[in-house]
User: Which sequence fits this backbone?
């Protein structure tokens, strides 16, 4: 069975980020079907076109990690009803230099969590639009998670049965999409 390489992009640089914890819990639900790489965003400089040549080492590393992945899993908080600055900054770097975007044709899935009732829905809609404009293949459907005490257990797994079932279906759909697109297959990689 093909093991898909999935880059996890968490839109938070907070040490105790609930979105990073959720991302790690979702990765466990993929149950060996994916090899995950948590991509670092907080060492990327603030985007500035003056820095594009040569690319800072952290930016070159970030773009290589995105390009190397078969699929991208975005797990993001919502800041002021939109995409957190740390994530938008990373997306802008990924889109540059002109003609060398790392996003085109990349299968992507989006989820996120916040203590708020609509669980990052607005940020996810904005992210969906931006990634679509950049040519990523964003999986349809919605996955908004309200973060409540007890959602995760002490080992970091999803404790709430309903949420676990929902996110299991979410990650299963994403791995099916990767399989349908031929991501990870030797032929696709060589192309
Ligand atoms: C600058 C800022 C803006 C925020 N705006 C929103 C918001 O629009 N909607 C929301 O549900 N939560 C909002 N929050 C609360 C976050 O959901 C909460 O801080 C959450 O823990 C962030 O996720 P993280 O722990 O993964 O960083 C905001 C937090 C910050 C720091």
Assistant:
């Amino acid at each position: 069975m093909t093991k898909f390489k999935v880059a996890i992009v968490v839109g938070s640089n907070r040490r105790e980020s609930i979105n990073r914890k959720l991302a790690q819990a979702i990765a466990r639900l993929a149950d060996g079907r994916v090899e995950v790489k948590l991509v670092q965003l907080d060492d990327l400089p603030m985007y500035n076109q003056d820095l594009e040549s040569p690319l800072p080492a952290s930016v070159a590393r970030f773009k290589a990690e995105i390009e190397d992945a078969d699929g991208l899993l975005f797990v993001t908080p919502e800041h002021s009803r939109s995409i957190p600055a740390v994530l938008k900054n990373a997306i802008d770097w990924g889109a540059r230099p002109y003609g060398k975007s790392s996003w085109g044709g990349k299968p992507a899935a989006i989820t996120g969590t916040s203590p708020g009732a609509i669980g990052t829905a607005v940020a996810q809609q904005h992210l969906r639009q931006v990634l679509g404009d950049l040519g990523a293949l964003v999986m349809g459907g919605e996955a908004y998670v309200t973060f409540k005490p007890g959602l995760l257990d002490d080992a970091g797994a999803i404790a709430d049965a309903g949420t676990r079932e929902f996110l299991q279906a979410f990650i299963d759909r994403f791995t099916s999409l990767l399989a349908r697109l031929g991501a990870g297959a030797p032929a696709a990689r060589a192309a």
